[in-house]
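Q: Predict the assembly, please.
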Amino acid sequence: MGIIAAREGRCARPETASMSIPRVDGERLWSRLMAMAQIGATPKGGCNRQALTDGDLAGRELFARWARAAGCTVRVDAIGNLFAHRRGRAASSPAVLIGSHLDTQPTGGKFDGVYGVLGGLEVLETLNDRGLETERPLELAVWCNEEGCRFPAAMMGSAVWAGRMPLEAAYALTDRSGASVRGELERLGIDLKAPLERQPLAAALELHIEQGPVLEQRAKRIGIITGVQHMSRHEVTVLGQEAHAGPTPMEMRRDPIRVLADLLPRLYALTAAHGPQAKFTVGIIETFPGSPNTVPGRLRFTVDLRHPDLESYRALRAEAEREVAAALARHRLEGGIECVWQAPGVVFDAGCIAAVRDAAAALELDALEMVSGAGHDSVNVAAVAPTAMIFVPCAQGLSHNEAESASPADVENGANVLLNAVLKLANT
Amino acid sequence: MGIIAAREGRCARPETASMSIPRVDGERLWSRLMAMAQIGATPKGGCNRQALTDGDLAGRELFARWARAAGCTVRVDAIGNLFAHRRGRAASSPAVLIGSHLDTQPTGGKFDGVYGVLGGLEVLETLNDRGLETERPLELAVWCNEEGCRFPAAMMGSAVWAGRMPLEAAYALTDRSGASVRGELERLGIDLKAPLERQPLAAALELHIEQGPVLEQRAKRIGIITGVQHMSRHEVTVLGQEAHAGPTPMEMRRDPIRVLADLLPRLYALTAAHGPQAKFTVGIIETFPGSPNTVPGRLRFTVDLRHPDLESYRALRAEAEREVAAALARHRLEGGIECVWQAPGVVFDAGCIAAVRDAAAALELDALEMVSGAGHDSVNVAAVAPTAMIFVPCAQGLSHNEAESASPADVENGANVLLNAVLKLANT
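A: Predicted assembly structure:
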C-alpha cells in the first residue's frame, strides 16, 4: 500500500514514474508461496515434498502451469531439472539464470528453495505486467533434489547440469527403501532421453532465506552473499558383535556404542577448538539390528562438517577423521569414516555481487555482505557462470524445520532486489 | 552310539535296562531344531521369526503338527500362548509344565527359545517311544512374544498367563509400523475369545541355551539355574530443535546429540562402578527427522539395565535416572527417562532345582549352579508355580545373533537332564 501511495502521489502516470525502480507484486508472490505450501503440507505447518516423490512432482507441475501461463516455454532435462525460458531481445545471447529448488526436507518449511523459485517467477510476472523486455533471455531453473535427504547427494540436479557429477552416478543413488533416482524419474514420467545440455549463461542469481540467525540478530534486511563455506558429509560405521544384553559380561562385548560414547565428546570439542564458525552436526544415528536387549552388531551415523575458512575446514576434517580412527583402534573394533559428499567453498562473482549491492542500495534496504553457511545450487552454477546470491532474514534463523518462516515484507524486499539485479545483468 | 553299545553289552532286554536312566533321541531333536530353523531362515544362518509375524505362525503350526502326531491335545489361549497336553495317570492332578518360546530376534539364532520347546517335545516323544506314563499330566507351553523386540514387552504371553500383565495392555502394544498385538493375533486367526485360564501346576522346568559365555569358559556341560537377575528396559527421549546444519551457529543450537555425548560416557562409567555383574546396553538409537544436514529435533534411545544383586540393581537404576535428568538440565533440553518394562529378579524353587541337580548327577554331567543373566518366561511362571531352569553352553556365549550355536552333544545332554528331572517331578 505504501508503494502505491508513493506512486500516486508523485505522478499522474505512475507506470512510467515507478519504472525507475521497478517493484514486484508482494501479495501475488506471498499467495503463491502459500499455495505451493499446501502440497505436502504437514500438520505443524511445514512441508514434506522430498525429491522425486509424488508431492515433489505435484509442486513442479503447479509451478510449470504458472510459468506457462506467464508465457514461458518449459522443458525438463534428463536429471529432472525444470527450466522456464523467457525470450530476450537478443534471443541467442547468453541468458541470465534465476533459480532454486522446490523439494524439501522431511519436516521442512514453506520457504527453503521455494522462495527462490517463486521469487524468480514473480520477477518474470512483473516484467510481463510492465511489458518489459530484457536484452538477454531469462532462464528460471527448478533444480532437482537439492536437499539430498532422500537421495544422499545434495544439489544433485545442478551438479549433473554443471558437469560436476556423472549422470549415471546420480541415477544410481538410492533412498532407504532401495528406490533409485533413475527408477523414480521414470515412475514420475520424466524423459531420461531429454537433452542434458547446459544453456550459455551471462550471469546467475539465487534468492533464498538465510536459514541462519545472522540477519535477524543484526537487524539487516538483505544479505549480499559473497560466497559459500566449505562443507562435506561423512558416514561413520562401527562394526561390533551382536550379543544378548543379559548374560554377556560388559568386558566380553564388542559394543559399537562404546565408540560413539568415546567419539561424540571429542568431536564436539575439536569443533569448538576451530572457533564459532566451525560446525559439526550428527543428523542420523542408526543401530542394527535395533533391538532393546541386543548389543548392536553395527552402528552408523552421519557427520556434517563446515567452515568458511579453507585451512580451518581442512584441519577440522582431518582431525575428525583421525579421532574416528583412534576411537576404533582404542576399542579394537572395525569400521571407518567415509566422505559421501563434499562441496568446496565458493567465492562468488564480483559483477553479480555488485548488481545485488546496487539493487539493495537503490531500494534503500539495509544490507550485510556475508558468506552462506548452507550449500546451495549456486555452488554448482558458480562453477560454470558468474553467480551471486541474495538472502532475506528468517525467523529465529530456523530452517529445515516446519516452523521456518519469513515476513511478507522481507519476502517482498528480497524479490525486489532480485528484480533490479536481474534487470541490470540482463540489459548490459 | 556309546549308549547303544552300553545297552547291548549289559542286557538282552535293553529297553528294560536302559529305563533306569532314560535318554532322549538326540538325532531326532537335532533334526527338528534344523527343520524349525528353515522357517524365517536368514542368509547368515540365523532366524527371523519375530512375534506374530507370518514366520512365527508357520513355526507354531509346524510345532502343533508334531505335538498332535505325538498324541497331545493342542490349544491356544487368548494371548496366543500354545499348550500341548499329555495326559497323566492322575488326569486331574496338577501338571508339570515344560516350555519356552518359538519367536526370535530380527537377527536371532536357531536355539534361543526353540531348544526349550523342541527339547520338551523330545521328552514327550521319548516317553511315547518307551510307552511310559507319568503320574501327573505334562503340559508343553509355547509362550507368545518372549523376545519383546517387535512388541515392546518381553515375556508377554507368560506375563499375561501368570496374571502379571493385563490382557488389554498386551493387546494394545504396537510395533514400529503401528500394528497392534490385538490386530496381529486376529490377522493370524487366533481366537481372542479362547479361555485364558491357568492350569494347576505342580512344577515347571525350562531348558535353554545359556546365551552367555560362563559354561563354555568353565568347561561345564549343564547349568543348574537357581534364579534370574533383576532387569528393566527404559526409553530416553531428548527434545531439541530442528535446524539447518549449515548456517546455525553451534552455540545457538538446541542439539539433542549433545545430551547423548554427555550421557553415554557417564552411563558406562557408573555401570563399571557396580562391578563386573552390572550390565548396561543401548540397543536402539534413533534421530528425528533423520536427515544428515538437519540438527535432530528429537532423539530416542533405549537403556537396558541388569544386576543379579537387588541393592546394586536399584542403585544402578537410580543413578542412571539421575544422570539423564542432570544431562537434560545441563543442556537445558526437555526430555526424560521412562521405564517401559521391568522384571524383578527371581529365586527358583529348591525342589525343582534339586530335580535338575539329581538328573545331571545321575547322567554324570559336570554341572554349575548359576544365576541367569537373561530374562525368561520362567520368571513369570515362577510367580505361580515351583520352577527351575536348565542351561547348556552356547558357542562363545553368543545369542541374539545369527551365529548362535550349540553342539549336538550339549543339546542332547540338556534334553536328557530335562527328561529325568521331569520324570522325577511328574511321578512324585
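The radius of gyration of chain A is 23 Å. Chain A has two domains: 2-228+345-426, 231-343.
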